[in-house]
Design goal:
This protein is an all-alpha fold. The chain is built from 15 helices and no strands.
């Protein structure tokens, strides 16, 4: 029997067909605008903090405060994403983040320059984002048929990384010409198109709500037990955590590299982040292609090794233009780990567990990012950012080797088939 994924040209069909889904396309485009604004803010606020304090530790602290709520609220967010209408969840959290962004803009325009005070809206926004993320990721499943899910998940990665490429560049340009206030204002406006789409959109695959009298903690624990019995999901989450700890700090440490190693300004800093994201965008189509040509297991392992070699190269390069090319290659490698991990989980997980399992992955991933960022900031202040890059590169290599050695089935479990059991919704 020949399926779409077994024929010669059919593996490309989902890649094009998914954008013919009107609801998904409108959600994708407006999410791109909203996330571009978010990344503008995520560059602008650390730049403000670095200018106020002159220390890389506060740059790492921004990441900690922004992502720490995900660790605390992850269990609640996952259960909510399975229990309640995800579109309604997204509407509520997006409105909340808009109001918080307006508050941050008002603080800056009123002359507030205390890093402690500026962290208040950052923390609130991080809390709302923690509740938003599992529903946002799972909502993709509600917008497309199962046959297009892998392509839709990877298009989401393109959207996220394209916004990550555009946001810092636009922010760098605005910071260099008009100042932080305008960058924060554009972020506020970027929420509006997505809110309009969420208000009117209709799902293609209606969500099956999980109705249970169990407590939130009990339902979350059931997701942990489910993950424990899925080697592929466990290994995918391990890859995400490793990428968060040792790979993701490159985005915040680019600020320190630009200032202390390459001696360039805000515009060049924005371009460095753009190169990371453009590298990511250039390889994401590989993840949506034919599994036999480029299995997810291969993508994640190659990604860990590639990110490691990129970091090691940056430890000895001080030329901005050479470093820019290395940033591009590093971004391509890192996304193979991050997008590969997300795709593995989405492809394997049982439907009634989707929100909770995604929240576990996101909780651990987002928890790893601030730990890595704070560690990177401390090491950069004490002995230099290049020392951190060298240490992170070595640890990434060891992690890639560990993915072959530690699991019983090895990396092959990353290519496990979808769990078709009905579970709690039976």
């Amino acid at each position: 029997m020949t399926s779409e994924t077994d024929s010669g040209v059919a593996p490309l069909r989902p890649w094009f067909s998914v954008m013919r889904q009107r609801n998904y396309l409108s959600f994708w485009l407006t999410s791109l605008l909203s996330n571009t604004g978010m990344w503008m803010s995520n560059l602008t606020v650390p730049v403000i903090l670095y200018q106020i304090t002159g220390t890389a530790l506060w740059v790492g602290a921004f990441t900690l405060v922004n992502f720490l709520p995900t660790i605390v609220l992850g269990p609640v967010a996952g259960v909510i994403a399975d229990r309640f209408d995800r579109r309604h969840i997204l509407l509520i959290t997006q409105v909340g983040m808009l109001l918080t962004s307006i508050g941050l803009l008002a603080m800056w325009l009123s002359g507030v320059n205390s890093p402690w005070v500026l962290m208040i809206p950052v923390f609130i926004n991080g809390s709302l984002s923690a509740l938003n993320t599992p529903a946002f990721m799972a909502f993709v499943h509600d917008l497309v048929p199962r046959s297009l899910l892998r392509a839709a998940v990877n298009y989401n990665s393109i959207q996220f990384n394209l916004s990550r490429a555009l946001g810092p560049v636009i922010a760098g340009l605005i910071l260099a010409t008009s100042g932080p206030g305008w960058a924060l204002a554009v972020n506020c406006v970027s929420f509006l198109p997505l809110l309009v789409v969420l208000f009117f959109i209709r799902v293609t695959e209606p969500q099956i709500l999980v109705k249970s009298a169990q407590r939130i903690l009990t339902q979350f624990t059931s997701a942990l037990k489910y993950i424990r019995h899925s080697s592929g999901i466990k290994l995918a989450i391990f890859g995400a955590v490793v990428g968060g700890l040792f790979g993701q700090p490159i985005f915040t440490m680019s600020i320190v590299l630009a200032h202390t190693v390459y001696h360039v300004g805000a515009m060049e800093l924005g371009l460095l982040n753009m190169y990371l994201s453009l590298g990511a965008i250039s390889v994401i189509p590989l993840l949506a292609g034919k599994a036999k040509w480029f299995p997810l297991s291969r993508a994640m392992v190659w990604g860990l090794f590639g990110t490691a070699f990129g970091f090691l190269a940056l430890t000895v390069v001080s030329n901005y233009y050479i470093a820019s090319f290395i940033f591009y290659l590093t971004g391509a490698a890192l996304i193979l780990v991050m997008a590969g991990s997300a795709t593995v989980v989405q492809m394997i997980v049982r439907n009634d567990m989707r929100g909770r399992v995604l929240s576990v992955r996101q909780m651990l991933f987002m928890g790893a990012i601030p730990i890595g960022a704070m560690t990177a900031g401390y090491i950069a202040d004490q002995v230099g950012v290049q020392v951190f890059l060298c240490a992170a590169g070595i640890l990434l290599i060891l992690s890639a080797i560990g993915m072959f050695v530690i699991p019983r089935r090895g990396v092959a479990s990353l290519d496990d088939p979808h769990d078709e059991s009905k579970g709690e919704t039976a």
